[in-house]
Specification:
glycosyltransferase activity, Galactosyltransferase C-terminal domain-containing protein, alpha/beta, 8 helices, 277 residues, 2 domains, transferase, 8-stranded mixed sheet, 31% helix, glycosyltransferase, Nucleotide-diphossugar_trans
Length: 277
């Protein structure tokens, strides 16, 4: 029997974590291993341990930002040590549909998708009503993000651009995780590590596959666009990506920063923080 681990990394967002747990409890197939990696959040780690059915891994913070890449790698390592055959990584803000775990597990076993990097459609939810989200009503809110493939439940869309990969919700077999080598831990803070992971998969000839049954619903929270508070991390991680792949990622954000006068282009085409005069 294939063993499936669901891995979540988190800092704060305690209510989002609790509702994600409630959604997982409604799964048609429960994960064999539930892993939570907390980043500099001992209160969340303690609360999760009290449940008794969650394997908790703790990692400290980093003065440069949250160690997202390292946290995912630690979660995957814990899952693999527990004997997981399939890794499902789910953002703490995402509520899994009841079919998500089973859909990913079946896709990881199916001949046409077992060698692929698996992603499912994600719906961004509006702010919740005063009483909170009703898990039973989520299917009626299903409106997947239009910028990414969204096959219907039960359908699969093969191939497509690795630039569309996102780390909100994805899965792969343990063997593919080993081949890719996990996330590059040089990325610290916001941005770049998920595109680097996808490009490494592409370099290895690992295609994308979009799994219609693996639907998730992203809980609403305020966002900043462009994400100015992450400017330094985006510049640092973008430069690392350029060194590794020869081009800058996150160009939409970087160009928006440039329009706001926060960054400037150099003669070589790089981006740097604009000196304040």
């Amino acid at each position: 029997m294939t063993r499936v681990a669901v891995i979540t990394i988190a800092h704060g967002r305690h209510e989002h974590w609790a509702l994600q747990e409630a959604a997982l409890a409604r799964s048609e197939r429960r994960p064999d291993e539930r892993i939570l990696v907390t980043m500099d959040d001992p209160a969340l780690a303690s609360a999760a341990r009290e449940r008794g059915d969650v394997r908790v891994v703790e990692t400290g913070g980093d003065e440069r930002g949250l160690p997202l890449a390292r946290a995912r790698n630690l979660g995957a390592r814990a899952a693999l040590e527990a004997g997981a055959d399939v890794l499902v990584l789910l953002d703490v803000d995402c509520l899994p549909a009841p079919a998500l775990v089973d859909a990913y597990a079946r896709a990881a076993e199916a001949p046409e998708t077992r060698e692929s990097l698996l992603s499912g459609p994600v719906t961004y939810l509006d702010p919740p009503p005063p009483e909170g989200y009703d898990l039973g009503a989520l299917p009626s809110l299903d409106r997947p993000h239009p910028a990414r493939p969204a096959p219907a439940p039960g359908e699969v869309e093969l191939g497509g651009s690795h630039d569309l990969f996102w780390s909100l919700s994805f899965a792969l077999r343990a063997e593919l995780w080993h081949r890719i080598g996990g996330f590059h831990e040089g990325y610290v803070g916001y941005g770049g590590e998920d595109t680097d992971f996808a490009w490494r998969a592409r370099e290895l000839g690992i295609p994308m596959a979009w799994i219609g049954g693996a639907r998730a619903f992203h809980q609403h929270h305020p966002i900043e666009d462009p994400p100015r508070r992450h400017l330094d991390a985006i510049l640092r991680n973008g430069a690392l990506f350029r060194d590794r792949w020869g081009t800058w990622p996150m160009r939409g954000w970087l160009d928006a920063f440039a329009q706001e006068g926060l960054v400037e282009r150099t003669a070589s085409g790089d981006y740097r923080r604009r000196q304040q005069r």
